[in-house]
Amino acid sequence: MELAYIPSPSRGVLHLGPIPLRGYAFCIIIGVFVAVWLGNRRWVARGGRPGTVADIAVWAVPFGLVGGRLYHVITDYQLYFSDGQDWVDAFKIWEGGLGIWGAIALGAVGAWIGCRRRGIPLPAWADALAPGIALAQAIGRWGNWFNQELYGRETDLPWALHITSVTDGREPGYYHPTFLYESLWCIGVAVLVIWADRRFKLGHGRAFALYVAAYCVGRFWIEYMRVDEAHHFLGLRLNGWTSIVVFVLAVLYIVLSARRRPGREEVVEPNAPDDTDEAATDEDGTAVDLDKKSEDDTESAGSAEEKAKSKEEDKTEDKAEDEAEVKGEAESAKKA
Fold it and tell me: How far apart are CA 153 and CA 53, in angstroms?
């Protein structure tokens, strides 16, 4: 008797009247919001303007969705263009099927357009967004749980995923929850990038490259466990080879970039307001408003100047009185 397992949802869509609410779509949308929110915080911390990340995401996200779908359809073309299949299904993105490699590639094109319009460097923007993308993937993978897809080999582990659907040739049973493995791995990648960025001050796209390299390691392992249909080359799944190639390219970029452009960008967004001088620390450690302090200093300087002037005038008057007194005594002595 099975004592423990991860249940699958009985269905991946709920209907609010005529409106379908799909779990897969909700996971993608929530992931995008998390990525933009975290990316905005990191961008502002680097000296950028609030809202810039969201403005560029308006370009990057649609391009990324199209790229992700194109990669999936091209690499799994038999699902849509072979005998007995309906090619119209290639446009049904809500049924699942987004390739991260295509999403990153074409999403970068959209981000480049947005960055060029704002006059900011794409690598700096990518560095700010990198851990957010990893968290977005972690959330998005739960869409596969709603669709009962992309699971691994059969297992009797207590965290096995119970597949109940028989759609598209699925066989009910207990399988490795590879969607969960990848989700947890992506959370770890996000934490790694945040830590490394703080520790080593990564810049010029190296934080993003670290995210790519770390993700590829986990993806290669997870691809080895999956049992869904895929193209193979020299005994490895196509996505496994892609992981190897992209990992090597990401590591090369980190090494070469560190040599050519060490350190981090000093300015990530031209003409961004500098809020670092709005407050300072007094001698006792108390935060003070520099503008107010400047006004106080000006008032103090003015008061000191007035006091000095008044004191000088008093001295002049005293001197005049002394001279008059001496002159009067001299005249009296002369008359006597």
Answer: 39
188, 192, 193, 199: CA torsion to nearest 10: 160
Residue-level pLDDT at 10: 81
> How far apart are the C-alpha atoms of 26 and 140, rounded to whole Å?
8
pLDDT at 64: 93
Q: Extract the tokens encoding 51.
A: 């809202």
Residue corresponding to tokens 């810049």: 203
Selection from 230, 227, 190 nearest residue 210 by Cα: 190
What integer pLDDT is reported at residue 184 of this predicted model? 97
Per-residue pLDDT at 284 = 37
Cα-based angle 219, 222, 227 (whole degrees, multiple of 5): 130
DSSP H helices, the chain, are 23-45, 52-75, 78-81, 100-118, 122-140, 142-147, 178-200, 206-225, 238-260, 290-335
Listed as ranges, residues in the chain with pLDDT below 50 are 1, 276-294, 297, 300-301, 333-334, 336
Token pair listed for 317: 């008057």
Cβ contact 80:86 at 8 Å: yes
Q: Identify the CA nearest to 179 among candidates 132, 213, 226.
A: 226
Give me the count of residues in the chain: 336
Q: How far apart are the first and last CA of the chain?
A: 137
